[in-house]
Design goal:
Strand content: 25-35%
Number of helices: 14
Radius of gyration: 44 Å
Length: 690
């Protein structure tokens, strides 16, 4: 009868499958035992087969088959499969179609199959193809665009030849492809393009690519991953071939990753782009290798592009290798950025010879905000290329003197000690370009972990060490267009940490370097030199006092010369008024005494005596009256002289010279006294303490 299933026209393997399905058992077939795809579809969907009116019975566990060869394409497009579909170790040469299908659980573990096409499919349970070999024949190996998968997508240790496309898919569980191989090599529809394309996908529990191999780009831009993205030990290779040659190995622009991004010991050939990504947890790339050398679409460009990325916890790049720029412009890192042991090499130095137009920056942290920055600590791991910290802000800054670029020496050229490249081939001009310096303009930090640049505090003093660090900048920023902000920032940071003497030394050195800059006008340079000479720019008023004492003593000696020459007689000196004249004599002699000729005896008894030391001190300090300077003035007629020079005769006197010395001392005294007062009151240094 037509309503009773007839097994006579079925092949042996098919009869075994029908019998097992009825009992809810696994049908175990020989490796080459064939089964028609139409029968599998009819069994799974509960549809009649071969002209029968009724379908073959299917027990609740669903269709389960191990081994065998499926003839034809497994096409479940637009069908509803209420029970599980479980096919393992089978060969499905023509592939699988689940387009717009509604499935429960799908399992193709260890199968050898053509492309699996399932856009728009809804799978309530999980989709598993662990250990499977999926060959897209030049197209997509797995296409799950806009698919909705409930419990998870599993491709552990699978091999996919062709693109794996889960663009805009929604996976409530995890996507686990640990140990898988994604190969979208130079062939077919997407040669050398995306190995894994998950643009805009939503993955609830995490994306796992540990120890996976991806030949072609891994694109998760705009994806939302609720858990972690773990690709520890994975190999991403988007080398010089195909659609994206030498481009992005990992493209995660704008991705949102919940629990963290892990690339420990991973290998990336091509750019790692997490531009504008948001990672709630940490980004751990310890021991990873990022290589975007002189090849392909981004030749000599970024090895790691994390511009404007937001990383909630730590970013670990310790012991990582980066060939190409590490760019984190405008990024926000809530915890540590650990570069200890990292080897950063700019693109210009990454190859055997500098590529034309290659980038010269090894590390670009401009405008970043970082909780704790840890830079390399040894000379062997010193970044090879420019380190740009401009306008970055770091709460805690940890660096090491051994890894600093060599400081500038005004007498030698930069390239004698630093990494340089010859741009002559590009610019047509002779000379080498210094690419081994720091860019510090606008860099701010709250605390120096190692003020001297050494963990044990050894080596030179703090001020001397930090002077060398500040001299590790570009030559133009020190000796031509001087940048004062890095020096001010260093002085403030040291003062906040209690290194006040070292902060003063750095401030003094900043003014010295600013004076030496070629763009500083001559007048300003001269005034700066005088301030340094006389008062260390107001930071050392005791130096001004020493200068003052020297001036007073020197001028006292000059005022004493007439005494030594015997022109002033014995005490009281200068009473003869030969060298020095009494200017207020009338105030001390009454008119009657002058008429009676007793003026000289009264003056000798009453008039203040001339004292060279008191006279010098009284002249030097304008606000101090010691009763000497206002009573005596040099005699302009003392020891006149005349010198004939050709037709001209120069005339003068030693008295006039003494008077000029007096005027000069008054001016010097006013200046030095003012410097002393402003030095002790802090008026000169107020701007450096704000």
């Amino acid at each position: 009868m037509a309503d009773k299933p007839n097994l006579k026209d079925l092949m042996p393997g098919e009869r075994a499958l029908v019998a097992a399905a009825k009992k809810g058992e696994v049908a175990v077939l020989r490796p080459r035992q064939p089964v028609r795809a139409e029968l599998i579809v009819a069994l799974a969907c509960g549809e009649p087969f071969g002209g029968r009116d009724k379908p073959f019975p299917l027990a609740p566990p669903g269709l389960r088959m191990r081994g065998g060869i499926v003839r034809g394409r497994l096409d479940f497009s637009y069908r509803r499969v209420r029970l599980g579909l479980w096919i393992r170790n089978a060969t499905i040469r023509d592939g699988v179609s689940l387009s717009q299908a509604w499935m429960r659980d799908v399992d193709f573990d260890n199968c050898r199959t053509g492309g699996i096409f399932m856009p728009g499919a809804k799978i309530d349970g999980q989709f598993s193809a662990d250990g499977a070999e999926i060959d897209g024949g030049g197209g997509d190996a797995l296409n799950a665009q806009r698919a909705e998968i409930g419990a998870g997508l599993f491709l552990r240790n699978a091999t996919l030849k062709g693109r794996c496309d889960i663009n805009a898919a929604k996976i409530t569980g995890q996507f686990d492809a640990e140990g898988a191989s994604f190969d979208n090599g130079p062939r077919g529809e997407h040669p050398g393009g995306d190995a894994l394309w998950a643009q805009g996908a939503e993955i609830g529990a995490g994306l796992f690519l540990g120890n996976a191999t991806l030949q072609g780009r891994c694109a998760i831009n705009g994806a939302k991953i609720g858990g972690q993205f773990d690709a520890e030990g994975a190999a991403f290779d988007n080398g010089p071939r195909g659609e994206h040659p030498g481009g992005d190995a990992l493209w995660a622009q704008g991705a949102e990753i919940g629990a963290g991004l892990f690339l420990r010991n991973a290998t990336l050939k091509g750019r790692c782009d997490i531009n504008a990504a948001k990672i709630t947890g940490q980004f751990d790339a310890e021991g990873a290798s990022f290589d975007n050398g002189p090849q392909g679409k981004h030749p000599g460009g970024d090895a790691l592009n994390a511009q404007r990325a937001e990383i909630g916890a730590d970013l670990f790049l310790d012991n990582a290798i980066l060939k190409g720029r590490c760019a984190m412009i405008g990024a926000k890192i809530g915890g540590r950025l650990d570069l200890d042991g990292a080897r950063l090499t700019c693109a210009a130095l990454a190859g055997d010879e500098a590529a034309e137009g290659a980038d010269t920056v090894a590390l670009d942290l401009s405008e970043t905000k970082i909780g704790h920055l840890i830079l390399p600590r040894t000379a062997a791991t010193r970044p090879r290329g420019i380190v740009d910290l401009s306008r970055a802000h770091v709460t805690s800054f940890e660096d090491f003197a051994a890894a600093w670029p060599p400081p500038l020496d005004p007498k030698t050229r930069d390239c004698a000690t630093r990494d340089c490249i010859d741009r002559g081939k590009e610019t047509g001009e002779a000379g080498k370009e210094d690419i081994g310096h720091l860019v510090l303009d606008g860099f701010t930090y709250d605390r120096l972990v190692h003020p001297s640049g050494s963990r044990d505090g050894g080596g030179p003093g703090v001020a001397a060490a930090r002077r060398n660090w500040l001299l590790a900048q570009r030559r133009e920023h020190v000796f031509t267009h001087f940048r004062p902000q890095p020096w001010r920032q260093m002085a403030r940071a040291l003062a906040r940490q209690g290194y006040e003497d070292e902060a003063r030394r750095i401030t003094i050195e900043r003014r010295v370097m600013q004076r030496m800059a070629s763009e500083t006008p001559l007048l300003r340079r001269t005034l700066s030199w005088l301030l340094h000479l006389l008062a260390d720019y107001g930071f050392n008023p005791w130096k001004t006092i020493l200068w003052s004492a020297g001036i007073v003593a020197l001028w006292a000696i000059a005022y004493s010369v007439p005494v030594w020459l015997g022109d002033c007689g014995g005490p009281p000196w200068c009473a003869s008024q030969q060298a020095w004249v009494r200017v207020q004599a009338d105030d001390f002699v009454p008119i009657a005494a002058r008429l009676e000729g007793e003026a000289e005896s009264l003056l000798s008894a009453r008039y203040p005596h001339f004292n060279p030391v008191l006279y010098s001190l009284d002249t030097f300090i304008p606000l101090l009256d010691l009763g000497t300077e206002r009573y005596w003035r040099a005699n302009d007629n003392y020891r006149p002289w005349a010198v004939e020079i050709g037709p001209w005769t120069l005339r003068g006197s030693w008295g006039q010279a003494l008077h000029w010395l007096y005027l000069i001392q008054e001016i010097i005294g006013a200046i030095l006294v003012a410097l002393t007062i402003t030095g002790f009151t802090g008026l000169l240094t107020r701007e450096d303490k704000d």
